[in-house]
Structures are given as C-alpha cells and as structure tokens.
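Table S2 (text version). Query chain:
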Amino acid sequence: MGIYGISVETDHDEKISLSLYSGKVLLIVNSATKCIFTPQYKGLQALYERFRGSGFEILDFPCSQFLNQAPGTIREINEFCDEHYKTSFPRFEKIDVNGPDESLLYTYLKKARHGFFGSRIKWNFTKFLIDRKGKVRKRYSPSVKPERIAKDVEKLLKEAH
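Corresponding structure-token output:
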C-alpha cells in the first residue's frame, strides 16, 4: 500500500483518504505547540503561501508523545496556531508517531525514509517531503527550518506528473 491508500482523521473527526492529495507535493510534519521548534510554524506558513498555488500542501499532525508538548484538544491547537502564526494549511487530529499506537501514516513514512535518523521519530517537527507520485523523497530533522526546504519543494513542483 502506498501513501494514497492511507486514511487519516481530520481536525473535524472525519476520516479522509490521502488520495485526495494525489498529484500534489506534500510536506508532512508532526508538530507541537509548546516546543522549542514551535516557531517553525511561521516558516511553514510562509512556505505554504509561496507554493500552494503550484500544487503544494503541508499536512500538519500534532503529536504529544514528546514531553506532552502538544497539550489540549485539536480545537485548542487550531486556535493557538491561528492566533500566533496565522496558519492556513490542513491540520489533522493528534496522533502518535512512534510505538504501539502510532499512526499507519507514520509507520509508512518511517519505513520509506529512515536514512541517517533511524526509523524512530526523534522529536517534534520532523518533516517528510513527498513527490507528486506519492514517493517519500526526503526526511528532515526537527532542526531543519522550513526555509531550507524551499529549494527541494520547488524542484519537485517542476518535475512532471
């Protein structure tokens, strides 16, 4: 099963298939609102505004597995992100990215691109870049700022479908 065969839960308790994003370049990120990397929301929003009209989406999956740094409900997380960072990219229900209850999406992402970082997600704001065909092309550590990903996004957007 590829990424487009996976379903996820939206921030409105609806299950959707990631096939809705087929043909788009995706940046998937596990986020948190009380983390040293939380200011990356600003860079993610800038990246989204720059490329969304060209077939780019950011899919945000809050995760509280790392020191409970995504406290509260998804509604509270949405309010925080709107108030502090004016984010407009899709945000989904909170998930686990490691362990027995990890999201099928993250099981898939980790198997597809573990590279130097190993298979476990080490912290919040680990990012995965997926091409238009659904192939996981890159994995970025939490310390990689969204601005540094722009060239890779641009390159994938220019590739043929």
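Notes on Table S2: The chain has a mean pLDDT of 93. The first helix runs from residue 40 to 51.
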